[in-house]
Automatic annotation (TrEMBL):
Family as reported in the entry's similarity comment: Belongs to the SmpB family.
Superkingdom of origin organism: Bacteria
Classification via InterPro entries: SmpB (IPR023620), SsrA-bd_prot (IPR000037), SsrA-bd_prot_CS (IPR020081)
Its biological purpose: Required for rescue of stalled ribosomes mediated by trans-translation. Binds to transfer-messenger RNA (tmRNA), required for stable association of tmRNA with ribosomes. tmRNA and SmpB together mimic tRNA shape, replacing the anticodon stem-loop with SmpB. tmRNA is encoded by the ssrA gene; the 2 termini fold to resemble tRNA(Ala) and it encodes a 'tag peptide', a short internal open reading frame. During trans-translation Ala-aminoacylated tmRNA acts like a tRNA, entering the A-site of stalled ribosomes, displacing the stalled mRNA.
Species for this entry: Acetitomaculum ruminis DSM 5522
Entries under PROSITE patterns matching the protein: SSRP
Annotated protein name in UniProt: SsrA-binding protein
Subcellular location: Cytoplasm
Biological-process GO terms, alphabetical: trans-translation; trans-translation-dependent protein tagging
Pfam families per the UniProt record, alphabetical: SmpB
Keyword Membrane tagged: no
Keywords: Cytoplasm, RNA-binding
Gene: smpB
Length: 156
């Protein structure tokens, strides 16, 4: 029997989302791409740092996701910042929409990756952090870093 590889190759990551928001729930969505955008993604030419997600007319759409034009492409290259539709089941969209209507919740893209030959986007339902929450996270990271440094020194 042939084993099927379930490899996820990361294309883009949104570290700022974890810094600015508490991620409550995560979903995996497909993305509707055209022509040479997939080839550009295979080369890692994608950024989701400034992107955001909205639900309009029962469809989930990502805005501001930058997919650089494929160098060897021609007239078939699309606008790098065009809005792209995310592919989710209707039940998931309704569930997400209900959660977002609560005060303070938003949808943020977390990462873009290949799952087999398909491009997937990990999206999260998030609640914004206050300044003091961010300070607490930074302090925890510093403590963890100090502990690891001390552990390394002791083991040498």
């Amino acid at each position: 029997m042939e084993k099927k590889k379930d490899s996820n190759k990361l294309i883009a990551n949104n570290k700022k989302a974890f810094h600015d928001y508490f991620i409550e729930d995560k979903y995996e969505a497909g993305i509707e791409l055209h022509g040479t955008e997939v080839k550009s993604m295979r080369m890692g030419k994608c950024s989701i740092k400034e992107s955001f997600i909205r639900i309009e007319d029962g469809e989930v759409i990502i805005y501001g996701m930058h997919v650089s034009p494929y160098e060897k492409g021609n007239i078939f290259n699309k606008d790098p910042l065009r809005a792209k539709k995310l592919l989710l089941h209707k039940k998931e969209i309704l569930k997400i929409e209900g959660k977002i209507k609560e005060a303070g919740y938003t949808l943020v893209p977390l990462s873009v990756y290949f799952k087999g030959s398909l491009v997937k986007v990990s999206i999260g339902i998030a609640k914004g952090k206050k300044l003091y929450d961010k300070r607490q996270d930074i302090a925890k990271k510093d403590q963890r870093r100090e502990a690891q440094r001390d552990f390394k020194i002791r083991n040498l």
